[in-house]
Amino acid sequence: MLSKLKIKKKVLVHRDFHISNIMFHKNKLFLIDSQDAVYGNPAYDLASLIDDVRFKTTRNFKNHLLQTYFKLEKKIKIEKLKNDFEILSVLRNLKIIGIFTRLSLRDKKHKYLKLIPYAWKLIQDRSEDIKFEELNVLLNNYIPEKKRLK
Length: 150
Fold this sequence. Notes:
The protein is mainly alpha-helical. It contains six helices and four strands; from the N terminus they run E-E-E-E-H-H-H-H-H-H. It has one domain: Aminoglycoside 3'-phosphotransferase, Chain: A, domain 2 (Alpha-Beta Complex).
Protein backbone atom coordinates (compact mmCIF):
# COMPACT_ATOMS: atom_id res chain seq x y z
CA MET A 1 0.00 0.00 0.00
CA LEU A 2 2.82 2.41 0.81
CA SER A 3 4.13 2.11 -2.75
CA LYS A 4 0.79 3.50 -3.96
CA LEU A 5 1.20 6.79 -2.08
CA LYS A 6 1.49 9.70 -4.52
CA ILE A 7 2.61 12.70 -2.44
CA LYS A 8 6.39 12.65 -2.11
CA LYS A 9 6.82 15.88 -0.13
CA LYS A 10 7.43 15.21 3.56
CA VAL A 11 6.07 17.41 6.34
CA LEU A 12 6.06 17.20 10.13
CA VAL A 13 3.46 14.58 11.05
CA HIS A 14 2.23 14.31 14.64
CA ARG A 15 1.08 10.67 14.15
CA ASP A 16 -1.29 10.80 17.12
CA PHE A 17 -3.31 13.76 15.91
CA HIS A 18 -6.80 13.47 17.30
CA ILE A 19 -9.12 15.76 19.19
CA SER A 20 -7.92 14.58 22.63
CA ASN A 21 -4.40 15.77 21.84
CA ILE A 22 -5.47 19.29 20.89
CA MET A 23 -5.74 21.68 23.82
CA PHE A 24 -7.29 25.12 23.77
CA HIS A 25 -5.93 27.58 26.35
CA LYS A 26 -6.12 31.39 26.42
CA ASN A 27 -7.42 31.52 22.84
CA LYS A 28 -4.51 29.43 21.53
CA LEU A 29 -4.31 25.87 20.28
CA PHE A 30 -1.66 23.53 21.66
CA LEU A 31 -0.73 20.01 20.57
CA ILE A 32 0.29 17.47 23.18
CA ASP A 33 1.60 13.89 23.06
CA SER A 34 3.99 14.53 20.17
CA GLN A 35 6.69 11.97 20.98
CA ASP A 36 5.84 9.94 17.84
CA ALA A 37 6.20 12.88 15.43
CA VAL A 38 8.15 12.23 12.23
CA TYR A 39 8.51 13.65 8.76
CA GLY A 40 5.98 11.99 6.53
CA ASN A 41 2.97 12.26 4.29
CA PRO A 42 0.74 15.33 4.85
CA ALA A 43 -2.41 13.18 4.58
CA TYR A 44 -1.62 11.12 7.69
CA ASP A 45 -2.73 13.62 10.32
CA LEU A 46 -5.74 14.55 8.21
CA ALA A 47 -6.78 10.88 8.22
CA SER A 48 -6.18 10.77 11.99
CA LEU A 49 -8.59 13.62 12.58
CA ILE A 50 -11.33 12.75 10.10
CA ASP A 51 -11.33 8.97 10.62
CA ASP A 52 -10.82 8.98 14.39
CA VAL A 53 -12.19 5.76 15.93
CA ARG A 54 -13.10 7.56 19.15
CA PHE A 55 -15.84 9.63 17.48
CA LYS A 56 -18.46 8.08 15.25
CA THR A 57 -19.52 10.47 12.54
CA THR A 58 -21.38 9.90 9.32
CA ARG A 59 -19.67 9.26 6.03
CA ASN A 60 -21.27 12.46 4.68
CA PHE A 61 -19.79 14.50 7.52
CA LYS A 62 -16.34 12.97 6.97
CA ASN A 63 -16.56 13.73 3.25
CA HIS A 64 -17.68 17.29 4.02
CA LEU A 65 -14.61 17.78 6.25
CA LEU A 66 -12.36 16.41 3.53
CA GLN A 67 -13.91 18.64 0.85
CA THR A 68 -13.56 21.66 3.14
CA TYR A 69 -9.86 20.87 3.58
CA PHE A 70 -9.43 20.54 -0.19
CA LYS A 71 -10.91 24.02 -0.66
CA LEU A 72 -8.56 25.51 1.92
CA GLU A 73 -5.39 23.78 0.73
CA LYS A 74 -4.81 25.23 -2.72
CA LYS A 75 -1.27 23.93 -3.33
CA ILE A 76 -1.98 20.21 -3.07
CA LYS A 77 -3.37 18.17 -5.93
CA ILE A 78 -6.72 16.90 -4.69
CA GLU A 79 -6.55 13.47 -6.36
CA LYS A 80 -3.12 12.77 -4.89
CA LEU A 81 -4.20 13.88 -1.44
CA LYS A 82 -7.44 11.86 -1.62
CA ASN A 83 -5.50 8.76 -2.71
CA ASP A 84 -3.00 9.10 0.12
CA PHE A 85 -5.70 9.98 2.65
CA GLU A 86 -7.59 6.76 1.87
CA ILE A 87 -4.47 4.58 2.02
CA LEU A 88 -3.18 6.12 5.23
CA SER A 89 -6.59 5.98 6.89
CA VAL A 90 -6.80 2.24 6.16
CA LEU A 91 -3.24 1.57 7.32
CA ARG A 92 -3.67 3.71 10.43
CA ASN A 93 -6.87 1.90 11.41
CA LEU A 94 -5.22 -1.49 10.88
CA LYS A 95 -2.44 -0.30 13.20
CA ILE A 96 -5.02 0.86 15.74
CA ILE A 97 -6.70 -2.55 15.73
CA GLY A 98 -3.34 -4.14 16.49
CA ILE A 99 -2.51 -1.64 19.24
CA PHE A 100 -5.92 -1.95 20.91
CA THR A 101 -5.72 -5.75 20.76
CA ARG A 102 -2.24 -5.67 22.31
CA LEU A 103 -3.40 -3.30 25.05
CA SER A 104 -6.16 -5.76 25.92
CA LEU A 105 -4.03 -8.91 25.83
CA ARG A 106 -0.81 -7.61 27.38
CA ASP A 107 -1.96 -4.79 29.63
CA LYS A 108 -5.50 -5.93 30.46
CA LYS A 109 -6.88 -2.62 29.13
CA HIS A 110 -10.06 -3.97 27.60
CA LYS A 111 -11.91 -0.67 27.19
CA TYR A 112 -10.36 -0.13 23.75
CA LEU A 113 -11.82 -3.35 22.34
CA LYS A 114 -15.21 -1.69 21.89
CA LEU A 115 -13.62 0.66 19.31
CA ILE A 116 -12.32 -2.11 17.06
CA PRO A 117 -15.57 -2.77 15.14
CA TYR A 118 -15.74 0.91 14.17
CA ALA A 119 -12.10 0.78 13.04
CA TRP A 120 -13.07 -2.13 10.79
CA LYS A 121 -16.00 -0.11 9.46
CA LEU A 122 -13.69 2.81 8.65
CA ILE A 123 -11.36 0.42 6.84
CA GLN A 124 -14.27 -1.04 4.91
CA ASP A 125 -15.57 2.42 3.94
CA ARG A 126 -12.16 3.63 2.75
CA SER A 127 -11.03 0.46 0.97
CA GLU A 128 -13.66 0.29 -1.78
CA ASP A 129 -11.28 1.54 -4.49
CA ILE A 130 -9.47 -0.90 -6.80
CA LYS A 131 -6.12 0.06 -5.25
CA PHE A 132 -7.18 -1.95 -2.19
CA GLU A 133 -8.02 -5.13 -4.11
CA GLU A 134 -4.97 -7.11 -2.90
CA LEU A 135 -5.42 -5.94 0.68
CA ASN A 136 -9.11 -6.86 0.66
CA VAL A 137 -8.29 -10.35 -0.64
CA LEU A 138 -5.70 -10.77 2.10
CA LEU A 139 -8.08 -9.55 4.81
CA ASN A 140 -10.94 -11.73 3.54
CA ASN A 141 -8.67 -14.80 3.52
CA TYR A 142 -7.32 -14.31 7.03
CA ILE A 143 -9.97 -12.27 8.86
CA PRO A 144 -13.45 -12.96 7.48
CA GLU A 145 -15.86 -10.03 7.61
CA LYS A 146 -18.12 -11.73 10.16
CA LYS A 147 -15.21 -11.76 12.66
CA ARG A 148 -14.30 -8.10 12.04
CA LEU A 149 -17.61 -6.49 12.91
CA LYS A 150 -18.34 -8.29 16.19
